[in-house]
Amino acid sequence: MKMTSRDKALLYGSAIPASEITPQSVWRERRRWIKGAAGGLALLGAGVSWAAETPAASSGQPAGKPDEPLTPERLVVSYNNYYEFGTDKADPQRYASQLRLRPWTVSVEGEVAKPRVFELDELAKLAAQEERIYRLRCVEAWSMVIPWTGYSLSHLLKAVEPTADAKYVEFVTATQPQAMPGLSSRILDWPYVEALRMDEAAHPLAMLVFGLYGKPLPGQNGAPVRLMVPWKYGFKSGKSIVAIRLVKERPVTSWMRAAPHEYGFYANVNPDVPHPRWSQATERRIGSGLFASRAPTLPFNGYGEQVASLYAGMDLSYYF
Ligand SMILES: Nc1nc2c(c(=O)[nH]1)N[C@H]1C(S)=C(S)[C@@H](COP(=O)(O)O)O[C@H]1N2
Ligand SMILES: [Mo]
Known about the structure:
Elements: H1 5-12, H2 24-37, H3 73-76, H4 91-95, E1 105-110, E2 116-119, H5 120-125, E3 130-137, E4 142-152, H6 153-160, E5 168-173, E6 193-197, H7 198-201, E7 207-212, E8 215-216, E9 226-228, E10 241-247, H8 254-258, E11 282-285, E12 295-296, H9 304-307
Bound molecules: ligand MTE and molybdenum atom.
């Protein structure tokens, strides 16, 4: 999929009629079609239980799901941060088809009673997958609203039985030098590593993602499996995960190592704590067009009701 001039206009803001932005009702209709089309479309061949087929009550969709139209799919897959492929927003789509996706294993290790190396298919089937609409808010002050498919990371954590010493969870992502031209740049320490506190990782909103828009994840969005932590800046959601380590000590993540005064461990979306070089008070909604004003950024990206209690008593401008 190449970006058309209309796509660029949607991204960078020009006069696109609102009617051209896929409204949720159209998306729902399309999903119904995809569902009916064939069992062959089941994600990764796994038994996927779609949110559309199950009553809303059983879905993990949190209250306060974004009251915004979905970001058009073609922008979601063509405007990406995936520095292993390069720092230009178009680089990931340009190179990601070179990513070797099979065989793919994810090693879950460290402070666990049952360490295990999962084949991708096993991992995809570990829990029922469902669709959840979450806003991704990048630290660069833009956002997208995306239908993700996957399940709560907590299911995986439970399966490996964390020990009492498991205080943090570290996510290690793929390095494939033949496929990833960005690895030759020293912008970050590779592999790209992210981490969460154990209770954050176990929160039902933290999602292990295998697909978006009802399809397997495109390479540029983190195929074949990534994290989505909706209340944190996008960089906490590592793509193309190869190992998950439960550890005692707080890991130093790639972004903290690169610029510790700019990127803290927590990285909760917080309009009151500016990035040292720009404000975080508002955001540009990708695809909203020229006349859309910047939207105010919400504490915890709008998921405060669900997650604020994780940080009770913490000074969030110190623990940024
Ligand atoms: N491995 C890896 N994961 C990554 C990144 C990256 O450079 N490498 N970028 C992060 C950043 S900064 C953002 S905003 C999101 C972007 O996800 P998206 O391209 O699917 O919107 O991925 C995150 N995960
Ligand atoms: Mo980001």
